[in-house]
Amino acid sequence: MYWKVALLITIPAILSIFLMPWAVLRPDVRNLIADSIHLLFPLLALGWIAIGLSAIEDRRKRLSWLFIGSSVLVSGAYGLAGQLVIGSWWPEVLLVTGFLLLWIGILLRPGQFPGDLLGKLVILLDVLISAGAAAAITVQLSFPSLILTPGLASLARLHGLLIPLMALLTLVCINLLLLRSTPRHDTIPHVLLVLGCGLQVVSGMWSAYLLLMGNRDVPLLCLSLWPIGLLCYGAAAHWDASWPDQTDLLEQQIDPFPSITGMLVSVALVLAALMPALYTLVNPLAPVQPGPLIFSFVLLAGLIVLLLIRQVLTFIHNRRLYASLQYLYRRMAQNAATDPLTGLANHGCFMERLEQEIHRAQRYHHPLAVIFADLDHFKQVNDTYGHHAGDLALQKVSRTLEHSVRDIDLVARYGGEEFVVLLPETTLEHAALLAERLLFNVSQIQLPFLEKDRRRLTLSCGVAAFPETCATANGLLNGADQAMYRAKYEGRDQVGLATLLMAGIIH
Fold it and tell me: What is the DSSP string of 196-234?
């Protein structure tokens, strides 16, 4: 897809450049080539936009391309009128109309502005920077010629005023386009739209400056930039039509803050505004007008201050964003390792911790024990009192088990009504004593629906330990599980101990 879009723009541009040397030698050929470019490129762009309108399903995007297509039509007519109609007001009318349609089309592009105050301030600063930079360029290039050039025709003065004004407002629209969050697949159309706007602005400013300086022979390259910019709009429409509107959620851009693209545009505009002023100071032959020059330097100093403020705001936002991401990461890690009903560690978290502890116990020859606990007759609780009562019982048991162990121990919900307790630095004998305490504490749990029927919760526990009964994590867990089932078989509400015989069976 990328190479297709590149070909759509580069082939006409390369052909135009190769024809320039021949056109320079033959003015009649030059005019013919310029007229052909101004006729064919807009027609080609309109064809792509028309095809895109029939394929794009998003209503707002179709409306945007309708206005941009109308702008291409009017701008193409302006390019031809500028070549064929001399001394008329119609080209200027077409110029303003084409830019108005282009601005509406750009602003109608789908996207979301930041909702926070910091993001809105950055957008405001970017708009001020782009407007100020365009004003500085206009003051340095156009206004001195408008004021000082004697005998300048009124149409030339109007042209010299309109082009910088249209360029300024176009740059503002470009910034607003780039500062909105959009799906990632809209990045290429946005880049092409910005490229088309930039070529139109450069072509217009260049031709306006030459006309104001009294040069009626505008270079073919300058004339070609305008229709090539229109061709970029057609390529953008072709991209939009080739990409489906129903995109996966992973393709959505998450960052709601103005991107670095807006910063690059702002910096580029300030540098562009600084170049004419530096050229005037360095070149001894350049005419110096103190008024416009001083105004430009003061404006540029203000723009640099605005850029610094924007960077500070961006730094503050990034710091807040980093803190938010760290918090969300901790929450996600906690949720991934936690059982949602009881708040205990889940099965995966327990197995990971068990592997860590068994490796440590094997390496340093320290004891390690596991208690496997299962609530007795818990299905009867759910069937008699409902699952809500069963959930409440599980939560009560979970809190009781947590409060009955040490801080270094880990209590986890293994699944259903089964719980496991990991006991580092604990022998089989001490683990059995703790299991007896767990049985007693659980039996003391008071639940209204159980007290009404004079019933109580009971546990069956199995205990296994390293190195007394097994030497691996799998053997430790399965040994405790087998001991728990033996406790159930022997009457429930009691503690079963894993044996070496069990370890030999399950090892």
Answer: HHHHHHHHHHHHHHHHHTT-----HHHHHHHHHHHHHHH
What residues contact residue 162 under an 8 Å CB cut-off, 6+ apart? 92, 95, 96
Q: pLDDT of 312-338, one tens digit each? A: 888 887 788 788 888 888 888 777 789
Token look-up 């860590």 returns 356
Neighbours of 427 (CB within 10 A): 16
Backbone torsion region of residue 180, taken as left when φ is above 0, otherwise alpha when ψ lies between -120 and 50, otherwise beta: beta
Kindly report, residue by residue over 199-234, the tens digit of the pLDDT.
887 777 777 666 666 565 666 667 778 888 888 888
Q: Is the pLDDT of residue 18 over 60?
A: no
Percent of the chain clearing pLDDT 70 (strictly above): 70
First to last CA, the chain: 58
Residue 319's contacts (CB-CB under 8 Å, 6 or more residues apart) are: none
Which helix or strand (DSSP H or E) is residue 459 part of?
strand 459-466
Contact 32, 215 (CB under 8 A): no
Contact 431, 423 (CB under 8 A): yes
Query: 413-445: per-residue pLDDT in tens?
Result: 998 899 999 999 999 999 999 999 999 999 999
* Model pLDDT, residue 168: 73
Whether the model clears a pTM of 0.70, i.e. scores above it, the answer is: no
Single out the residue of 127, 182, 482, 84 nearest to residue 303, CA to CA. Answer: 127
Q: Which two tokens stand for residue 41?
A: 């490129």
Query: Measuring CA to CA, which residue among 122, 110, 147, 128 is closest to residue 245?
Result: 110
The two beta strands, 410-415 and 495-497, are: unpaired
Q: Answer whether 127's CB lies under 8 Å from 171's CB.
A: no
Site of tokens 């013919």: 32
Side-chain half-sphere CA neighbours of 316 within 13 A: 12
CB atoms within 10 A of CB 452: 9
Residues listed for the chain: 507
Q: How far is CA 386 from the centre of its chain?
A: 46
Is the peptide bond preceding residue 467 cis, with omega within 30 degrees of 0?
A: yes
| Phi, psi angle pair for 454, to nearest 5° | 55, 45
If you average pLDDT over residues 100-127, what whole number do you get?
82
| Spatial distance between the Cα atoms of 184 and 42, rounded to a whole number of angstroms | 27
When computed from its CA atoms, the radius of gyration of the chain, rounded to whole angstroms, is 38
Report which secondary-structure segment, H or E, holds 410. strand 410-415
Q: Which stretch of DSSP H or E encloses residue 483?
A: helix 473-489
Burial of 461 (0-12, 13-18, 19+ CB in 10 A): buried
Long-range contacts for 359-363 (Cβ within 8 Å, ≥24 apart)? 360/424, 361/424, 361/466, 361/467, 362/466, 362/471
